[in-house]
Each structure stands twice: as C-alpha cells, then as structure tokens.
Amino acid sequence: MNKIKIGTVQVNNSFSGQNYLPLSLGFLVSYAEMHCKNFNDFEFLNPIYKRVPIKDAVEQYKDCDIVAFSVYVWNHNLSLKIAEELKKVNPDCLIVFGGCHVPDKNTDEYLKKYDFVDIAAVGEGERVFSTLLENYPNREWKKVPSITYRDKDGQIISELQCERIKDMNEIPSPFIEGYFDGLVKDNPEERWIGLWETNRGCPFA
Q1: Over the stretch 94-145, which tens digit does the pLDDT of each residue have?
Q2: Residue 205 confidence (pLDDT)
Q3: Measured between alpha carbons, how far is residue 173 from residues 19, 37, 71 in Å?
Q4: Distance between CA atoms of 101 and 103, rounded to whole angstroms?
Q5: Which residue from 26, 19, 79 is spatially nearest to 49, judged by alpha carbons?
Q6: Could you tell me where the beta strands, DSSP code E, fall in the chain?
Q7: Which of 83, 122, 138, 188 has a CA between 20 and 30 Å from the CA of residue 145?
Q8: Which among 29, 25, 33, 30 is positioned nearest to 70, based on CA atoms?
Q9: 3-state secondary structure at position 119
Q10: What is the DSSP letter of 161?
Q11: What pLDDT score does 167 carry?
Q12: DSSP state, residue 39
C-alpha cells in the first residue's frame, strides 16, 4: 500500500547564517508517532523550515496528500502564497493551517477569506493533528476537535476546542525521538538553532 504523503511548513526567521529547527512541527509529528493509531500509514517528507521561493516549495510538495502549515505573524503571508499555489497544482491536496496566527474567533471568516485552506486549527496542535490523521481516511472531521472546516456541502463548521495539555511530558521530545535527524543530515551546511519549550501559556492567567 502506498503511504499517504505529508508535507509540513514552518518558515522561521534566519539570521547570521543560522536557522531554527521547526520545533512546533517536531512536537506534532512526535506526538502523533506515539498516539496516532494509523501513524505508519503516513510518510512525512522533510519540512520546509526557512524562506524559499514559492515555486520551489510547490515543487517539493506538489504530490503530497496533506500539507500542514504552522503560521505566525512573520510567515503567514508566505505560507498563504505557498498554499494557494499548491492548491492550483494539486486541488486534491488537503491544506491544513494551525499556529498562533490562525484566529480563535471568527475562524469561519478566515476560511471564507482563504478558500484554498481546507482546515484551520486553533489552540494547541498535538492532539488535534494526531486525531486529524486518524480520521483522514474517512474524512470524518466532526471527530476532530478545535478545527474549522468545510463539509461535503460546502458549509463551514467549527468543532469544540479540546482541553489544553497540562503536562508537557505528554509530548515526546522530537530531539530524542529523532524527528530532526533526517533534516539535519540532508542539510549539512546549515547552522542550526535548537529551541526547548518548558511551559505554555500565560503564567498569570
């Protein structure tokens, strides 16, 4: 059986010849590897982690079944352009947006504005991404929390947000689990910056 191809995009800022490892994507995939029941049905291509020409990004992921974007204020516009062009080349590719720049209110308006985005996820992504992969074969998006999507009739639907992760140890370390190994091996010229997340959210909330 051919595996379902997944591309992931987290464009980080680069400076002084250095690039950040895409930690958010590492969390998503490492969590899914531990918790997703059908994880072995998927093939994850190396992530896009820095600014590249749009045509190069599209060429890299044009044959993917799913492309997931982690978006922030500094990469949102570029991510949108990559997603828009990918959709033109491969209309069947499922485009998923998550990250801090996806609004947690009026997310339906976000999908209306960017109609090439199929699913927008709000809040933490680990549980959401894992559940999305489990339900991808049958496209049963109603079983996936924290997402806004279009149903078969084109209606935009939002599911209830899932509970936040209270213990960071629930998420396996992408460093220990080897998520970055292939990326580092295939880009020997890079000078990498590692990030380490020890807590989330406002400590005063």
Answers
A1: 999 999 999 989 999 999 999 999 999 999 999 999 999 999 999 999 999 9
A2: 67
A3: 19, 19, 21
A4: 6
A5: 19
A6: 4-9, 14-15, 18-20, 42-44, 66-70, 94-98, 119-121, 147-150, 156-158, 191-193
A7: 83
A8: 25
A9: strand
A10: P
A11: 87
A12: G
Sign of CA dihedral 35, 123, 107, 8: negative
Burial of 202 (0-12, 13-18, 19+ CB in 10 A): exposed
| 70 within 8 A of 78, measured Cβ to Cβ | no
The low-confidence residues of the chain, meaning pLDDT below 70, are 205
What angle do the packed helices 126-135 and 23-35 form, to 10 degrees?
50
Place of tokens 């828009």: 84
User: Sign of the C-alpha dihedral, residues 131, 134, 140, 143?
Assistant: negative
User: What is the C-alpha separation between 158 and 57, in angstroms, rounded?
Assistant: 29
Identify any residues that bridge with 192 across adjacent strands, giving them in sequence order.
19
Both tokens of residue 29?
């995939």
In sequence order, what are the residues at sequence separation of 6 or more whose Cβ sits closer than 8 angstroms to the Cβ of residue 165? 124, 126, 127, 171, 200
Q: How far apart are the first and last CA of the chain?
A: 48
